[in-house]
Amino acid sequence: MSSTGKSRWANDEEDAALEAQRKREKEEKKRLKAEKARKIEAERQEREAAATAQRLREQPAQDQQSANGPPAKRRRLSQDRETGTGGAGTVNNGNESSSSNRLLLRFEGGPFGRCRSVENYDKLNDIEEGAYGWVARAQEVSTGKIVALKRLKLDPKDRSGLPVTGLREIQILKDCNHRNVVKLQEVVVGEDTSKIENIFLVLDFIEHDLKGILEDMPEPFLASEVKTLLLQLASGVNYLHDNWILHRDLKASNLLLNNRGQLKIADFGMARYVGDPPPKLTQLVVTLWYRAPELLLGATRYDRAIDMWSIGCIFGELLTREPLLQGKNEVDELTKIFELCGVPTEETWPGFKRLPNARALRLPTASKSSPATSFLLRAKFPLLTAAGVSLLSGLLSLDPDKRPTAKEMLDHEYFRQDPKPKQEAMFPTFPSKAGQERRRRRQTPNAPVRGQQAADLGAVDFSGIFSGREREERGGGFALRMV
């Protein structure tokens, strides 16, 4: 092979021309970049000059204001949407930054506007009054649509403005969009806008609440109907929990049912957003008959398990048409819980003795401890299937960690067994009390009022809670015994 041949890697005229072109393009890019930097610097200097002139013009007014008091804080405006430039240069520790202005976080939102007047609605009749407001049936004047008007309760002595419970309820209802959660249509106010006493939530009107139906039914719901109601309740609660919302007051009177068999969760006066791990929260939540044992024992850190306990109480109420645990006070409520679910031990509820109200309790010894929860529930609900007892005992587990989540409840075997859940369209209908007259109700406890003090149980003796169960009730040829 000849060594004098021209290498194919050698530079020729074409390579030299290509190299010269690349060099010219690179120099042109550098020139454009430098020109852009000079333009940015000139604009910055112009803005600084304008800001300095503005400060000089405002100096006499600032001197006068400083004599009268400290100046008000000025908000830094975000950049113009189109140009991306701000009203002043970036300053770090008093030194001017050579970089361009920082971008500020911008939250998109609808425009602010005046609320409509409640005079756009004609009140038809009162429905009920709760701890955080009263509800009336009303008709929109322009459309004739029937709605529910909930007026927020405000303490006239409280000068802090709208209570946090009302703000939370409005925020949560505006954020929620689920078929099993009541829908907030708008917020309206009274004609006198100088006062905040008249604030109304316009909600979907639902014909019944579950408690009113249970009080008037001659017979309990069928098993298929109970399953339909529980599935809808679990679906709505699962949506709330997936969006980090605790309802904290689930009970039969807060569950609405329309004439098409659709259940909706209502009354979010005690609801709030939580995180993971949950923050320190007030223990005075949930109506007494539906309050979880950890709340009665003073827990201040709790999660979605308190809502699941309330669902268990509602489950039992659907089966018997009576509230499951009707305690007269916190001590009596704990007594009824222990009678139905057994007395807690370190095996069944690890760490419960560390709760504030559990340290002074006197509980039965291990030899006198209560039977298993499932056995007690089987005795109380003899017609409930084994899968139903399993679900109910799980929801009423004393240990919050052992209660199923709403999602796990939706997948439970109980809903797959016969009889299958009844279709909503086949659900029975009932005459609507809310649409005809003021509701006459039996006396039942209300939700705790914000600002109240939680009960301190002190030293309570539960050691004799099962002392009467060794006595037998004898019938014709057989004996019944609770062991």
From TrEMBL:
<keyword id="KW-0067">ATP-binding</keyword>
<dbReference type="InterPro" id="IPR045267">
    <property type="entry name" value="CDK11/PITSLRE_STKc"/>
</dbReference>
<dbReference type="InterPro" id="IPR050108">
    <property type="entry name" value="CDK"/>
</dbReference>
<feature type="region of interest" description="Disordered">
    <location>
        <begin position="416"/>
        <end position="454"/>
    </location>
</feature>
<feature type="region of interest" description="Disordered">
    <location>
        <begin position="1"/>
        <end position="100"/>
    </location>
</feature>
<feature type="compositionally biased region" description="Basic and acidic residues">
    <location>
        <begin position="20"/>
        <end position="60"/>
    </location>
</feature>
<dbReference type="GO" id="GO:0005634">
    <property type="term" value="C:nucleus"/>
</dbReference>
<keyword id="KW-0808">Transferase</keyword>
<dbReference type="GO" id="GO:0007346">
    <property type="term" value="P:regulation of mitotic cell cycle"/>
</dbReference>
<keyword id="KW-0547">Nucleotide-binding</keyword>
<protein>
    <recommendedName>
        <fullName>cyclin-dependent kinase</fullName>
        <ecNumber>2.7.11.22</ecNumber>
    </recommendedName>
</protein>
<feature type="domain" description="Protein kinase">
    <location>
        <begin position="121"/>
        <end position="415"/>
    </location>
</feature>
<comment type="similarity">
    <text>Belongs to the protein kinase superfamily. CMGC Ser/Thr protein kinase family. CDC2/CDKX subfamily.</text>
</comment>
<dbReference type="GO" id="GO:0005524">
    <property type="term" value="F:ATP binding"/>
</dbReference>
<keyword id="KW-0723">Serine/threonine-protein kinase</keyword>
<dbReference type="Pfam" id="PF00069">
    <property type="entry name" value="Pkinase"/>
</dbReference>
<dbReference type="GO" id="GO:0004693">
    <property type="term" value="F:cyclin-dependent protein serine/threonine kinase activity"/>
</dbReference>
<dbReference type="InterPro" id="IPR000719">
    <property type="entry name" value="Prot_kinase_dom"/>
</dbReference>
<keyword id="KW-0418">Kinase</keyword>
<feature type="compositionally biased region" description="Low complexity">
    <location>
        <begin position="90"/>
        <end position="100"/>
    </location>
</feature>
<dbReference type="InterPro" id="IPR008271">
    <property type="entry name" value="Ser/Thr_kinase_AS"/>
</dbReference>
<dbReference type="InterPro" id="IPR011009">
    <property type="entry name" value="Kinase-like_dom_sf"/>
</dbReference>
